[in-house]
């Protein structure tokens, strides 16, 4: 099958590369000449494990093609997939500008019959608006069906998630679209949930909100654990072994971040408000997430008795989670910004996100080449992202570089007993 994918971000490029690897011809449409030229020689604009190799392989096999020209991509394609960004507006609502611009450009390029799929995360009703735009701008004689196929991949494991998803959600009322999308997804081993467009749109927000709820619940239990003298890790182990609950996503930390959970929780609150429902549960999920970041900073402030001026703190991990360079809504940004307000000097290290971090972190943060370099002369080390490399740190070596042996473990990756035995003062999350 020949398909077109609009947008070459974390979702678009992975989707395109996986479908190309499954034998399809995939046109990828971008809007930045420089990025498209680099993609044409196999240079991927972000870090995702295995993606550059996959793109290069399919590029050389002639199955992946990159263009700025919608007509070139849409004309030969049976399915056109919109996978552009849907960031938050300041009100929390999803900003659909990119989706609507892509839909307008697709409409003008339509010839014959196409299935137009929205993969971007969009509020219920958006696919219908896409259909209106297609109808308004399409040339006479062109026809189309719409479908909502939301994406569930996780950055860091995106290729595997796309090939082996827990489920594929397809919302459409068109038999022809159902047939084509059934064929396209045949080699992918996830159960297909067929539904109407609005259901598919809502499933995506409900899923991300549920996962965010589990994280905020774990954080709320962590706050309480510290107060009652419990160990949150044991509490959640005890809770998570109940098969009805499970342990997945029941991990406390410094709050969820990234390009999806914060924006999708806020968007679902806004969607509910639009329909007259006050989604208090999700408002609390969002509030607890903010508290998680604040509590981490408070622990650091309290340790130093509020006297942080002239202190150096080494931040380990900057991306919003391990195995990605994505800095969107990364908790590290807020934590570092707050600490700087107290007059703290920040050194920082992340295995892959340093280039992106430079563009979003406050001025003055000193980026270092390793965890040990970042810890050199530091009054404390704070682990913000749980990269495996930090789990394997040689803490004896780290200690030799530090001025004071204080460790703030924002992800509970260390065993407190071992760390304390090495002479560190240890602060975890929910470990009294
Ligand atoms: N990143 C994730 O982990 C993830 C997972 C599931 C769903 N999603 C959803 O998928 C969508 C895309 O997310 P992402 O992380 O890939 O975003 P992204 O910002 O990484 O990528 C968006 C891409 O769209 C391109 N673009 C924007 N407007 C365009 C236009 N008119 N024509 C051509 N290209 C255009 C941008 O240049 C960029 O390459 C969002 O709705 C997001 O919520 C993301």
Overall morphology: globular
- Examine the coordinates and then state which fold CATH places here, giving the name of the CATH topology of the largest domain: Rossmann fold
Helix content: 40-55%
Structural class: alpha/beta
Give the total of domains: 2
CATH architecture group name of the largest domain: 3-Layer(aba) Sandwich
Count of extended strands: 14
CATH classification, class level of the largest domain:
Alpha Beta
**DSSP strand content:** 5-15%
Order of strands, main sheet, comes to 3-2-1-4-5-6
- CA distance, first residue to last residue: 57 Å
Give me the CATH superfamily of the largest domain: NAD(P)-binding Rossmann-like Domain
Main pleated-sheet profile: 6 strands, parallel
Tally of helical segments: 18
Q: On the 0-100 scale, what is the average pLDDT? A: 97
- The unreliable regions are none
Binding site for NAD(+): 35, 86, 121, 155, 263, 328
Domain UDP-glucose/GDP-mannose dehydrogenase C-terminal: 314-416
Active site: 260
Catalytic activity: UDP-alpha-D-glucose + 2 NAD(+) + H2O = UDP-alpha-D-glucuronate + 2 NADH + 3 H(+)
Would you kindly provide a written description of the structure presented here, covering whatever features stand out?
By secondary structure, the chain is an alpha/beta fold. The protein has 18 helices and 14 strands. It binds nicotinamide-adenine-dinucleotide. Residues 6-12, 29-32, 83-86, 98, 101-102, 105, 120-121, 151, 153, 155, 259-260 line the site of nicotinamide-adenine-dinucleotide (NAD). Residues 6-12, 29-32, 83-86, 98, 101-102, 105, 120-121, 151, 153, 155, 259-260 line the site of nicotinamide-adenine-dinucleotide. This is UDP-glucose 6-dehydrogenase. It is an enzyme of class 1 (oxidoreductase).
